[in-house]
Each structure stands twice: as structure tokens, then as C-alpha cells.
């Protein structure tokens, strides 16, 4: 299936007499089962964050991420006993008809052990070599553990660049949905062996959150070596309390997050960030201790295990705008007139094609582009564009009622960038 076809199929009808809601470009794929998540609403008391209330989940699709600190047996190689236990829990969900995607760290850590190294090397080539060595044992172990429980699995190695490129993103999404439709469990890991930026920056917490958004997951479970998110470092402060539930977008969570461990590249900070990224897609996150007995099934059954990072529509928009603002690679640039500048920065409006005076770059529908004031040449916003560069050039300076004549009788898009898909800079 071509990217162009996917783009055509992604258009959603919108009323033309009112500003439409934001839409996302999606690959043509099997329709995900709509799932509702009933989460207890915190009371006005701060103590509600620490309440051990029963959670009620109605789940169809679950992402489970397991970190290096759990997967490695105290630095002595993969903990195969633990892996087989997690595989058994995952298989139980699978046999209940739920769709599960596993995100597994551990390749570099396993490579370290196989090579007799005590700490992660600092040189890139050594890290990549360790990842190549360890990946063999990691996927072999997971495949054996899952097939023993009657579950077929498939390996998918990804980089962040795979998910930032629209065509590769769509192809990955299509592959994941096909595997799930075949009842094959995808095992995802970051392709540390061939990438540079991803080893420096990457972590599987983020990769799992991106996968959750890609497949519209109903719950993202991050298993770590800590019980959850605490108000302070529990190893140093005996009075630290575990937060049972909180908004994913709560700012103070960043302040209390710790740093990464010896074997893994992440830490609680990356898990908080991942929870925010998952919230952008409307997916709640549970951060829990993977060493707890039957931890995966207990979480899915609604037991108050770990920390639940909740999401709502307002937080989803906030998270999305933060993600857009932090986007480093712009696919193109839209230059807009003074009226459009005022509309989007002061009035909080969407960017209409009539306000776009020039387009630079080649981009596809759904790509992230810069929005620049034509007079000052200042970048004032970034956003996800609803037209390709070729289409944008055709509708620039044009009013909505001319779109059907320009693009075709079935044209239904009316805004260049919706306000929910746009982050205003320096605001």
C-alpha cells in the first residue's frame, strides 16, 4: 500500500460552516476496537493521589514495556526465569482475546554480559557491537518463552527516524496491525546497532509510548525495578510516599523523577516523559515493579499496582502541543500574513489557507512544518499540516468555497493547520 493512498484514505469529513476538529493522518488498517477506560477521579484532597482504589479497565489493546534492569539477572545475563513468567502472563491476556505488543529492552545489557563488561561502553561502536551481540539472545529467549505458552511472536527493530518519517511510520503501523490481526505478538526493540542519535538519546520507554499512539492502545504498562513514582527518592527518604494516581501532565512529576541506572539508558524521568507522550494519544500509563507476582495480570484486572498516569482531553492537547514545540525536524515552512498571525497568536484560531502567502519545502499531509511571519521572518508556530506541499501551494491565499473547484468535488479539508495540532512559540 502506498503512502499516497493512505493519505487519501485518511481524510475525514468536516462541516464547512464551523471550524472543524483536528484530524490525524492514519494508515489504512484494521479498525481498532474502541475501548473505554474507567478511572477513579481524584477528589479535591491531595491525599487522593495516594489512595489504593480499584481501577476499572475495559481493554482490547495493551502495550507492555520491560526494562533492562529487570531483564538482566543482576548483571549475569538475561533472567530467563522472569522472562518465562512474564511471557505466561502476556499469554493469558492473549488467550483472552486481547491484543498485546511487547517492547523489550536488554540487548545492550545482554551484550555487556556476554562480553564480560561491567558497565556500558562510552564509545558508539562498542555500544553498537554489544547491541548486535545481545539482540540474538534476547529475541531467541522471548520467542521460546512465548511459544511455550502457545503464542507466536515477531521481531520488529525500529529507530526514532523510522517513526519520524511519514512513509516508514505508515508502513510500520500497517505491519503492526497485520501481525495483530494474525494473532502474532510483536516484540519491539530499538535498533541500537545501526543508529547514532538513538543510542545517545533513545530509550524504549519513549518507543513504547510511540507504539501506543501508533496502534491506539488502551493501556501502556511500563515495568521497572521500582514500585512506582514516589514523592521523593524512597532509597534516601523513608517518608517518601508512592503516588497511586496522577495526571500525566502534572508538572511536579519532572521535579521528583530520578536518573537512569547502571545497565539501562532510562530512568523515572524517561517514564514520566513516556506517560506524557502516551497521554497525547489518549492512552493512560501504569508504571510498576516488574518483580511483583503476576504484575501484568493484576494491573489489567484493575488492582491498584504501581502509579497510574491518567489522561483527559485537555491534557491530550497540552501534550500534543509540547511534542510539536519540541519537534526539531521541520519538513517545510509556511509564510503567513499579518491577519493570520493575529488570528493564531491572539485569537487562538486555526491557520486557514487564505492567510498563507508562500510555501517552502516538500512535505506530505500530516508532516510537521514551521509557521513564519512573512514580515518579521520570525518563526511563530509549528504544526501538523493538513495538505501536502503541492496541494498547499494550490490552495494558498484561497477561500474555502474555492477548494472543491481547485482540488476536486470531494474535497472536505478546510484548514491548513488546526489549532489543536499547532504549538505557538514564545507564548
Fold blueprint:
Blueprint lengths: L2 H7 L27 E2 L17 E2 L3 E6 L1 H4 L8 H16 L3 E6 L2 H8 L9 H25 L4 E6 L1 H5 L1 H16 L3 E6 L6 H5 L2 H11 L4 E6 L4 E2 L11 E2 L1 E3 L4 H5 L11 H13 L4 E5 L5 H6 L6 E4 L2 H13 L7 E4 L1 H8 L10 E5 L7 E6 L5 E6 L4 H7 L7 H5 L14 E3 L3
Parallel strand pairs: 3-4, 3-7, 4-6, 5-6, 7-11, 10-12, 13-15
Antiparallel strand pairs: 1-2, 8-9, 11-12, 13-14, 15-16, 16-17
Helix pairs in contact: 3-5, 4-5, 9-11, 11-13
Short description:
The protein is α/β, with parallel strands linked by helices and 427 residues long. Helices cover 36% and strands 17% of the residues.
Descriptive overview:
- It is a single chain.
- The model is unreliable at 1-45 and 260-265 (pLDDT under 50).
- This protein starts with a helix and ends with a strand.
- The chain is globular, with a radius of gyration of 23 Å.
- The strands form four sheets. It has an eight-stranded mixed β-sheet, with helices on both faces. Strands 14-13-15-16-17 form a five-stranded mixed β-sheet.
- Helix 3 packs across helix 5 and helix 9 (204-214) packs parallel to helix 11.
- 36% of the residues lie in helices and 17% in strands.
- It contains 16 helices and 17 strands.
- A hairpin with a 5-residue loop joins strand 15 (368-373) and strand 16 (379-384).
- By secondary structure, the chain is of the alpha/beta class.
- The protein folds into two domains: 55-321, Acetylglutamate kinase-like (Carbamate kinase, 3-Layer(aba) Sandwich); 328-424, Roll (Archaeosine Trna-guanine Transglycosylase, Chain: A, domain 4).
- It has helices at 3-9, 68-71, 80-95, 107-114, 124-148, 160-164, 166-181, 197-201, 204-214, 252-256, 268-280, 295-300, 313-325, 338-345, 389-395, 403-407, and strands spanning 37-38, 56-57, 61-66, 99-104, 153-158, 185-190, 219-224, 229-230, 242-243, 245-247, 285-289, 307-310, 333-336, 356-360, 368-373, 379-384, 422-424.
